C-alpha cells in the first residue's frame, strides 16, 4: 500500500520507473540494474518470500523493509547480508499493517530517495505534522458528528457498499481506503479512477436490478487535478445521481498534493473505523484472512 501511495503522489516527479509486483514471479527484465525491494510488515508474507531465490539468481540488488522480530524475512537479511529498514512498530499497538502505514510510506519513501528514484520533501513533511494533528482533532471519537467529516461520511454510506472515485495523485489513496474498509469495516468496497472510468463504467450502472439500493459513490475532489479531470469528476457525479445512486463528494482542502494525500490517508483510516462501528464489528479482527492463511499453510 505504501508503494502505491508513493507512486501516485510522486508520479510526475519520479526520476526512475517504479513497478509493483505483488505475486510469485519477478519481471523477466530483472537483473543487476534492477533494485528490488522486498516489503513485508510481518516478514512472513508468502509472495514476498517466494521471489527471493529468483532475485539472488538474477543477481539483482535487494533491499528489505520489515518490522522487528523473528521472521523468515529477518533471517534472510542476516543470511544474505541484505540492506534493510527494520522498524520497531511502537506506534501501531494493534499490529495490523493497514494501521501502520507511516512505516511503510515514510520508510519506503526514504529508501527510494536514497536510491535516487525521487526527491524526498523532508521539510514539507515536517511542516505537515501540525496540520495532521489539527485535522485529527476533527476526526476523533470525541469530535461531535456534526463537525466530524469521517463520522458524517460513515453515516451517509451506512448500508451500502462504497465505490470510491478519485484521480491522479490520489489513486494510491483509493487503494488504501478500499483495503481499510474491507478489513476494518468488514464491508465490500471498490475503487474507480478518472479518467479511465468514463470510458466504461458509466454504461455499467443499470444492471443488475437492485444495484442502486446496495451501492453508493464517494467522490474525492481536488483543485490539484488536471482541469479536464475536474470537469470529468463533476459530470460523473451528475451521471451517478441521474441514474439513482447516492453520490457523495468529499472536497480535500490541503494546500498541496502532498498535504491532500496525507489528509485523505487520515480521513479514510477514520472512515473505515466508523463504518466498522456502523456495522457493529471489531475493526481489529480479520477472522477470514486468518482462516485463509491457516488453510493455505496446510499441506
Structure description:
- The two termini are 30 Å apart.
- The strands form 2 sheets. This protein has a 4-stranded parallel sheet, with helices on both faces.
- The protein has 12 helices and 7 strands.
- It has 299 residues and is of the alpha/beta class.
List keywords for this structure.
single chain, 299 residues, Rossmann fold, four-stranded parallel beta sheet, 46% helix
* CATH third-level topology of the largest domain: Rossmann fold
Q: Beta-strand level of the residues, as a percent range?
A: 5-15%
Q: Helices and strands: which structural class?
A: alpha/beta
Query: What is the name of the CATH architecture of the largest domain?
Result: 3-Layer(aba) Sandwich
Kindly report the spatial arrangement of strands forming the biggest sheet: 5-4-6-7
Low-confidence stretches: none
> How many separate helices?
12
Number of domains: 2
Q: Termini, distance in Å? A: 30 Å
Blueprint of the fold:
Elements: H1 2-9, E1 36-39, H2 46-50, H3 52-58, E2 62-67, H4 72-80, E3 84-87, H5 101-114, H6 122-139, H7 149-157, E4 161-167, H8 171-184, E5 190-194, H9 211-214, E6 215-221, H10 227-242, E7 246-251, H11 257-279, H12 287-296
Parallel strand pairs: 1-2, 2-3, 4-5, 4-6, 6-7
Helix pairs in contact: 1-5, 1-8, 6-11, 7-11, 8-11
Brief overview:
The chain has 299 residues and is α/β, with parallel strands linked by helices. The protein has helices at 2-9, 46-50, 52-58, 72-80, 101-114, 122-139, 149-157, 171-184, 211-214, 227-242, 257-279, 287-296; strands at residues 36-39, 62-67, 84-87, 161-167, 190-194, 215-221, 246-251. Helix 7 (149-157) crosses helix 11.
